[in-house]
Amino acid sequence: MQDSFLHKGHRKKLVEYLRDHCSITSPLVLRAMEQVPRHLFLESIFHEYAYQDRAFPIASNQTISHPSTVAEQSQLLEAREGDKVLEIGTGSGYQTAVLVAMGLQVYSVERQKELFDFSHKTLKEIGLRPKFQSFGDGFQGLPTFAPFDSVLVTCGAQQLPSELLKQLKVGGRMVIPLGPLQEQILYRFTKIAPTEFEKESFGRYRFVPMLGSTN
Ligand code: SAH
């Protein structure tokens, strides 16, 4: 597994693009995006394109999100170093690595065994390890580790997963794409009281679906 000056140079350009064209202003996010070698989460045939703002296929028919989407979702968390974050949909592990590089304590859940194994191995090899990785159904969250400062869902949910909102601290935020299979809206829910939430929306996206344990 190798990072190179060429890849580092491409990452610098990607960070400039995120800052200048995607309204990414958080120093924590920009630093993390510059640090994480995205190509190492992709098949080698995609390595030369890894720092373009593109999504790519990964194992189990899933997709690694666009870098701009990863940066936007990470920024919407408004996280501070040391925050405890629950991520649903580890996938390749790239978004997980960005959250770890932001200095967050990351708990991540993936329902595809192949991706769970791949991400676990890759994150270990590049030395950006989350606190805990779980193989299972993200709709249940991780009650034993709750409450969380924030929750980040990287797959499109057709219904709001209420269990995840329960596992959020008061003052915490959940960033989640919600809507039908063809298109979702990216929302941020802020927990302002134990059963009260403020809801904001951040545009249209297309994520792979959030599937239940029996799908
Ligand atoms: N952030 C990931 C994106 C992966 S795509 C990356 O950077 O690569 C979304 C992931 O959500 C897929 O890996 C999919 O298997 C997973 N997923 C879908 N439904 C899920 C569920 N109920 N629980 C956990 N993971 C789920």
Automatic annotation (TrEMBL):
GO cellular component terms listed in the entry, alphabetical order: cytoplasm
Keyword flag Transferase: yes
Subcellular location: Cytoplasm
An annotated GO BP: methylation
GO molecular function: protein-L-isoaspartate (D-aspartate) O-methyltransferase activity
Keyword Membrane: no
Superkingdom assignment: Bacteria
Record-listed E.C. numbers: 2.1.1.77
Keywords tagged on the record: Cytoplasm, Methyltransferase, S-adenosyl-L-methionine, Transferase
Family: Belongs to the methyltransferase superfamily. L-isoaspartyl/D-aspartyl protein methyltransferase family.
Record-given protein name: Protein-L-isoaspartate O-methyltransferase
Organism, as annotated: Planobacterium oryzisoli
